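Batch 3, record 17
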Amino acid sequence: MRLPWNRQQDELEREVAYHLETMADALQAQGMSRADALREARRQFGGVEQVKEDCRAESRWAWLEQIRQDMRFSWRMMKKSPSISIAAIVSLGLGIGATTAIWSMADAVLWREMAVPAPEQMLQVLWESNGRLDGRIVDWTSGGGFRDGALDVGDFFSKAAIGAMQERSAGKLELAAHLYPDAVSVNWNGNVATTRLRPVAENFFDVLRLQAALGRTFDKGSREWQVVVSHAFFQRHLGARPDAVGKTIRVNNLPYVLAGVLPSSFLGLAAGDETAMYCRIEQSPGFVRPDSWHRPRAEDPRGWWLQAIARRNPTVPLSEAKAALDTAFAGTWVAKPAAGQTPRIRLSDARTGLGAPRREMGNPTRILLVLVGMVLLVACANIANLLLARGAQREKEVALRVSMGCDPARLMRQFLTESFVMAMAGGFLSLGVAMVVSRMLVTLLPPSVNPDSLQVNLSAATLLVTAAITALTAMLFGLYPAWRATRVNAGPALKEGTGSAGTSSRARWLPAKVLVLTQVAIGVLLVTAAIVYTSHLREITSRDAGFERAHALLFDLRPGELGFDGERLANFYRSVEQRLRAVPGVTAVGVSRIRPMRGGGFHEEIAKPGAAARVNSAIHHANAGFLDALGVPLLAGRAFTVEDVQNSRRVVIVSEQLARDLKLGQPLGARVRAMNEEWEVIGVARNARYSRLTETRPVAYMPMPLDLRAATVLVRSSASPTAFIGAIREAVRSVSADVPLVDLFTMEQQIARTLQRERMFAWLCGSFGVLALVLCVVGIYGLMSHMTARRTAEVGIRLALGASRMDVTRQVIGEGMRLAGAGLLLGIPIAMYMASAAQKMRILPEGPMPYWTLVAATAVLVVSALAAVVGPAVRASSVDPMRALRES
Amino acid sequence: MYVDRQGMKPKSAELLQGTLDLLVLKTLRQGALHGYGIAQKILLSSRQVLDVQQGSLYPALHRLERRGLVSSEWKESENGRMAKVYSLTAAGRKQLASELEEWKRYTDAIGWVLEA
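Prediction for the assembled complex:
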């Protein structure tokens, strides 16, 4: 590339050459020889190089030229002390990169607004009540809820309530119903994909004020079965072909017309929403299918199954809208609820979307932010220290330059450029670090969240901010030595050389010592966090699942999506079970509605007949072999028989915990109510985890319905299950070649999937800990080796006066360890405080403070600090007194 | 270090500080010229009294160019070589006029003092 100042350079060269030659021509014409003429021309011209230099000084690009000189000089200086330079650059890169990645993640999860017009008007409509809902007003529910202090909060409403609320709040609020997304199979011209479809009310997109980017949203007049798809789905599965609009697309084998494509900026209703498709609720595959849960009872005012999102009218006070909703809501109850169990409307801000993933991810993200902030702090302290040390190293050089008349401003600029070059190098490194870390962070997401739909983008603004912070640190501390040099009396500084520890030595080292001390304090904190979380993870992973983890294999079959129904489904499952059991080495075959350790499931309220107390229990709808296949021992009673399942008998096996929670006393033969029916307890099973290792829930096992559209098959084998995969596939294919095995995992893999978040969190904390440790060691090492180098003469004198080398070593080590010790004293109370804060936020399990982790963290730091000071100590003790004294 | 060759030339006068710019502008007023030409012309029109140190012309030219008073382009010169030719810009003309006036007032004042 030709740079402007290079071009200028060439031109100047040619211009001067022209001048000299023309003049020489004239002189030659007067009779001089060519050589003489040229010499004479040069003489008359004056100093050619001087002229060129003067011209450059006049040039528009003079300042650039100087910066280039400064940069070249900086590069040379950096090469002279490579360890300091590399340490500073790495500190910068890690600090900026990690911060940026984590901040971008937090942005996507916590703060990004929904891509709809005026997102601040969006509200999620919920209800809250003291304690559980009264059974007289609610009979069956479908939706989500959480506890907020003493309040139960839920997001589900009856159809009547939605209608009444829409009517009552007209003008104050617009409200649209929707359901949770369902997994569906989509067939587009023979290409099959699985995705998620959210059933929504017809006015859903009107409330969101969302226009289709292509085609249109639901056609109000038409009763045609229409779907609207996300832009990502359109690109990935429909080949981004605009002519797809208006064509037929099969969803769970039902024909829909593709009405339109949403804008690419709209990522769904919630952070990490996986929804790729929207259709009207009453046309959704789950609603129209014969065994629909919702359809037969959709109009029942005691069936609460619809979720709601709303847009407020900004000119009407929110309290008025809420009052209207409350009145309308209460008007739809079929009975008066018991005192204290009256639900009230709660409106929650939905500008960033619906709440669940945010509630789940919020605290870990916040903790990570704090941790990364500390890493940044340690990195900054490191840079500051390294630059100060280097500045001290160059005191002599600077003094020389000042004494030779170097302009202080020019000197400052030189130092500034050096820091800048370093900051730039760190900045480039940080880009790579940011990309790697953000890619890893995405896997931290709960398994239910689709990373594609979250769009964690590295935000340029964040990168700039963090880069600015660290670069500023670099500049500030890079400049400090120059600033001090201009005030230093050049004479003594030149004479002093590497010499004496003058009277000012204590004061001189103070800032550096304070920095190292802070680093060590923060280091303890981070190392403690690292140990706490990694041991927490180890503890979770090794928890007793209550069932046999080894030698089991799981996969899903979804015959219903291929059009199997009724008797054909029942036959399919029966045959699969028989063929699999016939495979040599297979000891048990389980079939169930819910995949164990899936991270979610099917929950129902169970009660003793006549009793008001209900227990929310997890349900396994399973076949006769399921308990054996899962490896859950029965403590009393019997397992299901094949007849129990074939005849759909109302029998149930309860877990110990459920028996205890229901206060069954003598469980066998007892009767319980669930799903509007009465069930007989025939067995008690040992407690086993249902959806994840971190949860303990009561579980009820019931005979599975024979017409499940999709089910999980669990195969237990006598040896390593992976050896049987081929035979198992063959067995399923022999029943039906069309039904694929979906998500085939061993049980261990399945468990690991639910722990991904914990694993990632522990991994991140661990790497922050290691990072902080490395930075601390670099910091201590840098300071100590620098301090000892500056005191060579002092050491020489001591040795000459008879101190033993051991004394010197001991002194240096003692000094370093005192520094580390002070940092530890500062850091330990902070670490203890942070750990208890984490317990309060339920990021750590409650319980006694794990003091041993503090001890371990302290030990790790002490050992590292020792490692960092040994080098400088040995170097100090191997000083040759004669040479040290001569050189000083 | 240089051999004294003053005898070969008419006695030359030192240039007053800051007047070089003025001379260059004035010389360019009659038309575009390259550096060598400017130097020759100043020498000629000063009747060989003002011997501008030829090299010092160039920093002056670059300075004037940066200030936008002259512009330059590469052209083929009379001897067939490519030369960088300078010409006066509109701003340069204005500057010349005001500097000429300034110079006149200055020399007048000096004259008055010397003749007083």
